[in-house]
Recover the amino acids of this structure.
């Protein structure tokens, strides 16, 4: 059975990557190429070629597999390579191949990266990837009067695991609560919320993902959830693209930026205060490239009086990843000479903005780190869109 699973994964990888004509148009699109000084193994076609030949030649020695693991897990699953391939070559599904490669490395007991193993163990034990005991999960609610989801609730605010764990993401969650209250939305949260499973599915640990998926689906069903609004684009993507379509039927899922625009359109949310700022918006990969949500956050920004949105030179489908997707929040790689977030911070300085606006907890954390590490805290601020909206109420 185990062997059959491995063979199927190997065949799927070869099948997906057989579309690749090795033109390497995807290579410069990959942020790994930027941060590894052009190391050919690290760009998109480098990652997938390494995987292709390891499977094709049936490589089994531990040293080679460990090297392959470092290459395959360095990918952020940002999807930039797929867009390049779709526009210029053969529409090869590189991210699918890479994710299957990770599943195969897990089957071989080689994956994931050592630091990522702790996140998976925590998911198994505490149902969150941060080693946070369930009692601590509720700490961020102190001083707030956030309702628990009940029969009266129309919207489930799915908080995700990062906000209860990290102060910046917590600011986002608090801001969104304020906006929902202002718009008089009948919403609620699940106090003992369970991770959507994104880190496990991205690291290739599917059994764990299925377990978390089942737990969430049971909760949604028993509570009668019909509408979910997520803080994180990663939870949003997981519910929309990874949960079984049948089980999610009748449940509307939105990222919070989409819901805010609905509230603005219905005049339930209006911004009266002027915020005179020149800002750039950081498209999260899992909102933009993975789900084509580009306009909603921009529309919300345009509704804030005084805000001047300046686009990054790489924006929308061409946007640069923050460096945190695909399990990369839990690991660093020695071969990398620069952090991607630092590149993004420099790009923001080049276009002369005072603030980077995010719509994702991981983008937020990485951009704040980038600003500190480039040492430009006096020139460039980072705020989440929800916080900016609260400032304009
Ligand atoms: S652009 Fe597409 S076809 Fe060309 S090397 Fe990359 S994956 Fe292969
Ligand atoms: S998904 Fe992003 S990080 Fe991964 S290989 Fe493609 S371009 Fe590179």
């Amino acid at each position: 059975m185990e062997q059959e699973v491995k063979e199927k994964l190997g065949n799927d990888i070869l099948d997906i990557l057989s579309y690749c004509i090795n033109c390497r148009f995807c290579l410069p699109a990959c942020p790994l190429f930027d941060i590894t000084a052009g190391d050919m193994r690290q760009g998109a076609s480098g990652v997938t070629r390494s995987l292709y030949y390891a499977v094709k030649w049936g490589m089994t020695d531990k040293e080679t597999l460990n090297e392959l693991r470092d290459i395959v897990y360095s990918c952020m699953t940002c999807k930039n390579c797929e867009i390049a391939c779709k526009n210029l070559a053969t529409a090869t599904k590189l991210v699918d191949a890479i994710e299957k490669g990770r599943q195969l490395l897990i089957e071989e007991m080689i994956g994931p990266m050592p630091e990522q193993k702790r996140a998976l163990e925590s998911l198994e034990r505490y149902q969150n990837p941060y080693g946070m005991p369930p009692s601590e999960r509720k700490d961020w609610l102190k001083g707030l009067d956030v309702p628990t989801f009940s029969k009266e609730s129309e919207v489930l605010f799915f908080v995700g695991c990062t906000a209860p764990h990290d102060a910046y993401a917590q600011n986002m969650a608090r801001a969104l609560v304020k906006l929902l209250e202002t718009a008089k939305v009948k919403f609620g949260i699940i106090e003992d919320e369970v991770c959507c499973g994104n880190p496990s599915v991205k690291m290739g640990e599917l059994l764990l993902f299925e377990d978390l998926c089942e737990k969430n689906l049971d909760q949604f069903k028993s509570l009668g959830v019909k509408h979910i609004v997520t803080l994180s684009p990663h939870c949003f993507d997981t519910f929309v693209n990874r949960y079984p379509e049948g089980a999610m039927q009748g449940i509307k899922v939105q990222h919070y930026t989409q819901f805010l625009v609905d509230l603005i359109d219905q005049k339930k949310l209006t911004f009266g205060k002027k915020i005179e700022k020149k800002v750039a918006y950081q498209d999260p990969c899992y909102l933009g490239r993975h789900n084509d949500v580009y306009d909603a956050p921009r529309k919300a920004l345009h509704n804030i009086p005084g805000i001047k949105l300046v686009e990054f030179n790489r924006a929308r489908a061409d946007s640069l990843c923050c460096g945190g997707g695909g399990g990369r929040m839990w690991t660093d790689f020695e071969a990398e000479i620069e952090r991607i977030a630092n590149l993004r911070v420099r790009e923001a300085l080049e276009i002369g903005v005072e603030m980077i606006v995010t719509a994702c907890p991981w983008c937020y954390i990485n951009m704040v780190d980038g600003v500190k590490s480039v040492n430009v805290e006096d020139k460039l601020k980072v705020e989440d869109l929800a916080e900016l909206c609260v400032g304009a109420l």
Remarks:
- Strands lie at 155-158, 187-188, 227-230, 252-255, 277-281, 307-309, 355-358, 381-384.
- The chain has three domains: 2-111, 118-264, 268-391.
- The mean pLDDT is 94.
